Amino acid sequence: MRNKQSKIVKANAGITLIALIITVIVMLILAGVAINMTIGDNGIFKKSDEGAKIYKNAANNEATSLNSMDKEMADLMEQLENSEDPTRIVDIVRTVYVESVKTRETEVETYWVLTADGKIRVWRVLEYGNVFDKLEMGPEVQIEGLPNGNIAHLATNGKTAIVLDKAGKVYTFGINNQGQLGNGTTENSDVPICISNTGELQGKVIKEISIDTYRKIIAIDKEGKLYSWGGDNTTPVCISNEITGLQDKVITEILYRYDDNFIVKDNAGKIYCLDTYNNNIIDLDTLINEENIEILQGKDIIDLKWKTFLDRDGKVYTMSGDTVVCMNDNMPILQGKKIVEIKRINGIILLYDQEGKVYAFEYDDIICLNDDSNSEIYNKKVNKIITGYIRDGEFGACIVGNDIYILTARYPS
Fold first, then answer.
1. Which of 26-35, 85-94, 197-206, 343-352 has the lowest mean pLDDT?
2. Using CB atoms within 10 A of its CB, is residue 6 exposed (0-12), middle (13-18) or buried (19+)?
3. DSSP code of residue 375
4. 170-174 and 160-165 as β-strands: parallel, antiparallel, unpaired?
């Protein structure tokens, strides 16, 4: 009976997958996508074939979980997005001021914005607002030593920058007082250094990078292994081989970072709290059971930011005193809403729902920023939210069409 149910689930997943691919194809054709976009090497037909292969492989492998297939499909959709819109915003970071990069006057607030075409452009504050500061796009940033036009991801804590190119190579520059650059020294560098042949990164293809508030950097390779440097290690080491309980895990995503702690997810959808200072790891399910958090037991938690949890049904749970409560059930503004993403900046939790609305939550107060007439995104639909570090804290950015709005340090006033 179990095998029969499994086959039925996979069959239904396959039908859903095929329907999704067909829908994407029709939408692209109706939108007037060029012929080479449809049938070229990176065209939709080839991508749809890849989607079919993903399902076929999942159906032939009993051990492949739905979470794993979800991740592969998300990667496929990201490839489609990249090919469709080269101006799509991928990352936003606060500008790292180094001598080799002459952008604008240092007294002007500027940000580096990475788009899907692999290029970095400098954006600066155009209008200071009540809740958000609106940015304007400036010139392309030419950074000596970086493969501009071939950059996949960009991360910084305002002092040290980590860059990942589309070939999986890692570049670092900026402050290096604790080995954050990963090149075996503690000397600062305003010129990017490729460290892909350094330490245990040699020969590895990296697919995700993250940096914490002060000194620690971690990266995931295409095999799901974790690497870390900064602090005690001035060159990259594979911590998947050093931390008990991590050796057999295939890590696919970095959800959150703070100080020496990172929240990561594996290919089975399980979430782990990783302490890189003490080199230990604990899975979220164990933590929930040990703390006897009954409301979270049995829930399919897909994201975690600080003490706020998001489940697959779009419900959010957070600490209220010594207990965890469901925000959707306890706050009228969230009733009936499906939250798809959560972020945290400077103690404020940002909730993003499937309708493009953003909610700011702090302590027991919550407000929808799209419905606040004092907000610069009033009555606007948000396409994406991005958070990052600045020198003295964090920032949150809302993408509205081709415009960027930065949640100001003055909020809440």
1. 26-35
2. exposed
3. S
4. antiparallel
